[in-house]
Give the backbone structure.
Amino acid sequence: MNVLILGSGGREHALAWKVAQSPLCQKLFIAPGNPGTATLGTNLPIAVSDFPAIRTACTEHQIRLVLVGPEDPLVNGLTDFLEAADELPGLLVIGPSQQGAQLEGSKAFAKSFMIRHGIPTAAYREFTSENFDAGLHYLSDHPLPIVLKADGLAAGKGVVIATDHAQAIRTFTEMIREAKFGAAGSKVVIEQFLQGIEMSVFVLTNGEEYLLLPAAKDYKRIGEGDTGLNTGGMGAVSPVPFATPGLMRTIEEEIVRPTIRGLKQENIRYRGFVFIGLMVDGNRPYVIEYNCRMGDPETEVVMPRLRSDLLELLIATGKGELNRKNLETDPRAAATVVAVSGGYPESYHKGFPITGTEEVDPDCLLFHMGTGSQNGQLVTQGGRVLSLTAFGDTIAGAVARAQSEQAKIHYEGKYLRRDIGHEFPEL
Ligand code: AMP
Ligand code: GLY
């Protein structure tokens, strides 16, 4: 069948790399894609926000399955839009309905969903301009640190962890009164700070059955030792050594199953990925957030560790036949190290020539995140530029390999973290 993948980052490159290996894939299209995806299929110059153009491309290229990479189109209802198109009967869209995407699109929705279904998460309250004064009062009595979250999508920047009350009150005021996060911050979730160590689990579901993909851990801060500003993610490792079979059972029983059951009970159509960000305190897992898509750069370690045919699993998901499928994973560890533009996540320059990519060892994987092509020359075109994935018998081994291969690539201002996987030196 012909497949269309939507998006243009490392996640979409990794998904395209995996889908392209399937004997079930005839023609692969990526919109808008990047120079990496162009080596695997045909890039279409269509923005992920241009729903009518996506619908037209599905007709024109006889697409049978659309895999939606990023959250924005899902939160804006792309799945419902394509499924309602008379000219696209039987089209399989992998990505939840607009209502399902609210798990990511609204922190308040996600929190109340978790409470309704008894899913462990931090205690919280929500506030708007209507109960602003009650919010100020609540904050001044709240133990520190305090977590403030803009309700809507804020490109990963809507979470502030305040370490004193003055900062909490300033942030709260900026979010609600000064619209610092635009409409996303007109409602604010204030929640208890959770202690522990973070990890992510990835679920592929048709809204009834599900498969658990390999778990991963990402590194969000720009600086080594997990310091400095938050980024989209500077690297990732999989598996997660502390995710023992016992902990995974608890996660499945207390979080994954109630989530899928809850979606079904509430008649929320969900055919796609659920990416669950967890805080694990001892052996107790709590949900920090839901995402309605795969993670980036987590996909760059999860897909390489998947031995099963991804397209076959996606077709089963789209058709509601996931119960017949099992998952095979590669026992080796995988690590990805992300190279970014100097200055990221604040301002940075683009357009620097990239050299050395052809020297990367063929048993490693180079995924394009923010690259472009200028007169045939590969150049930097985003904050996060290239994600290099390597395998190893241990996480430390995979990270060392990914780093030494990353070192072969050059561009002006290149920066990367050298401590991805630092908690697991022996594993
Ligand atoms: P989110 O955008 O919800 O993933 O939040 C961004 C980051 O903030 C998370 O990856 C955590 O590191 C941190 N965070 C969010 N909520 C909490 C919480 N309740 N307690 C502690 N840390 C949190
Ligand atoms: N790496 C975190 C995310 O994709 O949201």
In short: The longest helix spans residues 245-265. The radius of gyration is 21 Å. The first strand starts at residue 2 and ends at 7. Residues 218, 232-233, 291, 295-296, 298 surround glycine (ligand 2) (CB under 6 Å).
